[in-house]
Amino acid sequence: xxxxxxxxxxxxxxxxxxxxxxxxxxxxxxxxxxxxxxxxxxxxxxxxxxxxxxxxxxxxxxxxxxxxxxxxxxxxxxxxxxxxxxxxxxxxxxxxxxxxxxxxxxxxxxxxxxxxxxxxxxxxxxxxxxxxxxxxxxxxxxxxxxxxxxxxxxxxxxxxxxxxxxxxxxxxxxxxxxxxxxxxxxxxxxxxxxxxxxxxxxxxxxxxxxxxxxxxxxx
Length: 219
Description:
Layout: H1 2-19, H2 64-75, H3 86-89, H4 106-127, H5 155-170, H6 176-195, H7 200-211, H8 214-217
Protein backbone atom coordinates (compact mmCIF):
# COMPACT_ATOMS: atom_id res chain seq x y z
CA UNK A 1 0.00 0.00 0.00
CA UNK A 2 2.81 2.39 0.87
CA UNK A 3 4.53 1.62 -2.45
CA UNK A 4 1.37 2.43 -4.39
CA UNK A 5 0.99 5.72 -2.54
CA UNK A 6 4.64 6.61 -3.19
CA UNK A 7 4.31 5.84 -6.93
CA UNK A 8 1.14 7.98 -7.10
CA UNK A 9 2.90 10.99 -5.50
CA UNK A 10 5.88 10.66 -7.85
CA UNK A 11 3.57 10.52 -10.85
CA UNK A 12 1.74 13.68 -9.77
CA UNK A 13 5.05 15.49 -9.22
CA UNK A 14 6.31 14.54 -12.65
CA UNK A 15 3.08 15.71 -14.27
CA UNK A 16 3.33 19.04 -12.48
CA UNK A 17 6.91 19.52 -13.66
CA UNK A 18 5.90 18.79 -17.24
CA UNK A 19 3.18 21.51 -17.13
CA UNK A 20 5.55 24.16 -15.71
CA UNK A 21 6.78 26.54 -18.42
CA UNK A 22 10.52 27.10 -18.27
CA UNK A 23 11.66 30.69 -17.72
CA UNK A 24 13.44 32.00 -20.83
CA UNK A 25 16.99 33.22 -20.28
CA UNK A 26 17.36 37.04 -20.01
CA UNK A 27 18.37 38.97 -23.10
CA UNK A 28 21.79 40.63 -23.04
CA UNK A 29 21.50 44.01 -21.36
CA UNK A 30 18.12 43.23 -19.80
CA UNK A 31 17.81 43.49 -16.03
CA UNK A 32 15.73 40.96 -14.20
CA UNK A 33 13.01 42.55 -12.02
CA UNK A 34 13.76 42.60 -8.32
CA UNK A 35 10.90 42.65 -5.86
CA UNK A 36 10.71 45.28 -3.14
CA UNK A 37 11.51 43.49 0.14
CA UNK A 38 9.41 46.07 2.01
CA UNK A 39 6.32 45.42 -0.07
CA UNK A 40 4.29 48.08 -1.88
CA UNK A 41 5.39 51.40 -0.39
CA UNK A 42 3.65 53.63 -2.94
CA UNK A 43 1.42 56.30 -1.38
CA UNK A 44 -1.24 57.76 -3.66
CA UNK A 45 -1.13 61.51 -4.20
CA UNK A 46 -3.89 63.49 -2.49
CA UNK A 47 -6.90 64.63 -4.46
CA UNK A 48 -6.07 68.05 -6.06
CA UNK A 49 -9.69 69.16 -5.55
CA UNK A 50 -9.14 68.94 -1.80
CA UNK A 51 -5.98 71.11 -1.98
CA UNK A 52 -7.06 74.08 -4.10
CA UNK A 53 -5.84 72.39 -7.27
CA UNK A 54 -2.40 71.44 -5.87
CA UNK A 55 -0.86 68.00 -6.23
CA UNK A 56 1.43 66.91 -3.42
CA UNK A 57 2.09 68.69 -0.15
CA UNK A 58 0.75 72.13 0.68
CA UNK A 59 3.13 75.13 0.34
CA UNK A 60 5.32 75.93 3.35
CA UNK A 61 6.34 79.37 4.55
CA UNK A 62 10.02 80.26 4.57
CA UNK A 63 11.88 80.11 7.85
CA UNK A 64 13.46 83.32 9.15
CA UNK A 65 16.91 82.30 7.90
CA UNK A 66 15.51 81.34 4.50
CA UNK A 67 13.63 84.63 4.31
CA UNK A 68 16.74 86.67 5.12
CA UNK A 69 18.78 84.87 2.47
CA UNK A 70 16.00 85.10 -0.13
CA UNK A 71 15.69 88.87 0.36
CA UNK A 72 19.43 89.33 -0.02
CA UNK A 73 19.54 87.28 -3.22
CA UNK A 74 16.39 88.73 -4.79
CA UNK A 75 16.86 92.40 -3.91
CA UNK A 76 20.63 92.56 -3.68
CA UNK A 77 20.43 94.09 -0.20
CA UNK A 78 20.08 92.56 3.27
CA UNK A 79 17.30 93.24 5.73
CA UNK A 80 19.66 94.37 8.48
CA UNK A 81 17.00 94.50 11.20
CA UNK A 82 15.62 91.00 10.70
CA UNK A 83 17.42 89.55 13.72
CA UNK A 84 15.72 92.06 16.02
CA UNK A 85 12.29 90.76 14.98
CA UNK A 86 13.29 87.14 14.29
CA UNK A 87 11.49 85.79 17.37
CA UNK A 88 8.30 87.58 16.36
CA UNK A 89 8.63 86.17 12.84
CA UNK A 90 8.81 82.66 14.29
CA UNK A 91 12.47 81.82 14.93
CA UNK A 92 13.00 79.41 17.84
CA UNK A 93 15.17 80.61 20.73
CA UNK A 94 15.68 77.04 22.04
CA UNK A 95 15.16 78.34 25.57
CA UNK A 96 11.40 78.77 25.65
CA UNK A 97 10.58 77.80 22.06
CA UNK A 98 12.14 74.66 20.59
CA UNK A 99 10.63 74.61 17.10
CA UNK A 100 10.43 77.35 14.49
CA UNK A 101 6.97 78.54 13.53
CA UNK A 102 6.29 78.78 9.81
CA UNK A 103 2.60 79.54 10.06
CA UNK A 104 1.46 82.63 8.14
CA UNK A 105 -0.21 85.19 10.39
CA UNK A 106 -0.97 88.90 10.59
CA UNK A 107 2.02 89.67 12.83
CA UNK A 108 4.39 88.08 10.33
CA UNK A 109 2.75 89.97 7.45
CA UNK A 110 3.00 93.29 9.31
CA UNK A 111 6.72 92.99 10.12
CA UNK A 112 7.51 91.67 6.66
CA UNK A 113 5.75 94.65 5.09
CA UNK A 114 7.86 96.99 7.24
CA UNK A 115 11.04 95.14 6.26
CA UNK A 116 10.13 95.10 2.58
CA UNK A 117 9.56 98.85 2.56
CA UNK A 118 12.91 99.54 4.20
CA UNK A 119 14.92 97.21 1.95
CA UNK A 120 13.16 98.10 -1.31
CA UNK A 121 13.21 101.87 -0.78
CA UNK A 122 16.93 101.78 0.05
CA UNK A 123 17.73 99.65 -3.00
CA UNK A 124 15.58 101.70 -5.37
CA UNK A 125 17.08 104.97 -4.12
CA UNK A 126 20.59 103.63 -4.75
CA UNK A 127 19.72 102.35 -8.22
CA UNK A 128 18.35 105.61 -9.63
CA UNK A 129 21.81 107.08 -9.00
CA UNK A 130 23.65 104.23 -10.72
CA UNK A 131 24.53 104.42 -14.41
CA UNK A 132 25.65 100.81 -14.88
CA UNK A 133 22.79 98.30 -15.32
CA UNK A 134 25.08 95.48 -14.19
CA UNK A 135 25.15 96.95 -10.68
CA UNK A 136 21.37 97.30 -10.56
CA UNK A 137 18.72 94.73 -9.68
CA UNK A 138 15.32 96.43 -9.69
CA UNK A 139 16.14 98.25 -12.94
CA UNK A 140 18.46 95.67 -14.52
CA UNK A 141 16.79 95.60 -17.95
CA UNK A 142 16.45 99.38 -18.33
CA UNK A 143 18.74 101.25 -20.76
CA UNK A 144 22.26 102.18 -19.70
CA UNK A 145 22.84 105.46 -17.98
CA UNK A 146 21.00 107.07 -15.12
CA UNK A 147 17.41 105.97 -14.57
CA UNK A 148 15.22 108.48 -16.40
CA UNK A 149 11.50 109.16 -16.54
CA UNK A 150 10.01 105.70 -15.96
CA UNK A 151 6.59 106.85 -17.07
CA UNK A 152 7.96 107.12 -20.63
CA UNK A 153 8.90 103.45 -20.85
CA UNK A 154 6.97 101.45 -23.42
CA UNK A 155 4.72 98.57 -22.39
CA UNK A 156 7.29 96.19 -23.89
CA UNK A 157 10.10 97.66 -21.76
CA UNK A 158 7.99 97.52 -18.61
CA UNK A 159 6.92 93.98 -19.42
CA UNK A 160 10.52 92.89 -19.93
CA UNK A 161 11.49 94.35 -16.55
CA UNK A 162 8.56 92.73 -14.75
CA UNK A 163 9.22 89.32 -16.30
CA UNK A 164 12.84 89.57 -15.17
CA UNK A 165 11.92 90.66 -11.63
CA UNK A 166 9.13 88.11 -11.14
CA UNK A 167 11.46 85.34 -12.27
CA UNK A 168 14.14 86.63 -9.90
CA UNK A 169 11.81 86.91 -6.91
CA UNK A 170 9.47 83.96 -7.50
CA UNK A 171 11.26 81.67 -9.94
CA UNK A 172 8.21 81.99 -12.22
CA UNK A 173 7.69 84.78 -14.77
CA UNK A 174 4.58 86.92 -14.96
CA UNK A 175 2.55 86.25 -18.08
CA UNK A 176 -0.80 86.78 -19.73
CA UNK A 177 -3.43 88.95 -18.07
CA UNK A 178 -1.53 89.07 -14.81
CA UNK A 179 1.47 90.60 -16.56
CA UNK A 180 -0.82 93.18 -18.17
CA UNK A 181 -2.18 94.17 -14.74
CA UNK A 182 1.33 94.54 -13.34
CA UNK A 183 2.36 96.70 -16.30
CA UNK A 184 -0.57 99.02 -15.53
CA UNK A 185 0.40 99.08 -11.85
CA UNK A 186 4.01 100.01 -12.68
CA UNK A 187 3.02 102.79 -15.07
CA UNK A 188 0.69 104.35 -12.50
CA UNK A 189 3.42 104.22 -9.87
CA UNK A 190 5.92 105.71 -12.35
CA UNK A 191 3.55 108.58 -13.22
CA UNK A 192 3.02 109.36 -9.54
CA UNK A 193 6.79 109.21 -8.96
CA UNK A 194 7.32 111.91 -11.58
CA UNK A 195 4.69 114.13 -9.97
CA UNK A 196 6.30 113.95 -6.53
CA UNK A 197 9.85 114.02 -8.01
CA UNK A 198 10.77 110.58 -6.66
CA UNK A 199 11.56 108.21 -9.51
CA UNK A 200 12.63 105.48 -7.15
CA UNK A 201 9.04 105.08 -5.91
CA UNK A 202 7.91 102.97 -8.89
CA UNK A 203 10.82 100.54 -8.52
CA UNK A 204 10.27 100.32 -4.77
CA UNK A 205 6.53 99.73 -5.17
CA UNK A 206 7.11 96.78 -7.49
CA UNK A 207 9.82 95.39 -5.20
CA UNK A 208 7.53 95.57 -2.14
CA UNK A 209 4.66 93.91 -4.01
CA UNK A 210 6.87 91.10 -5.25
CA UNK A 211 8.40 90.49 -1.82
CA UNK A 212 5.12 90.41 0.09
CA UNK A 213 3.45 88.08 -2.42
CA UNK A 214 2.85 84.50 -1.23
CA UNK A 215 4.91 83.21 -4.16
CA UNK A 216 8.00 84.74 -2.57
CA UNK A 217 7.22 83.54 0.94
CA UNK A 218 6.32 79.91 0.26
CA UNK A 219 7.90 76.93 -1.41
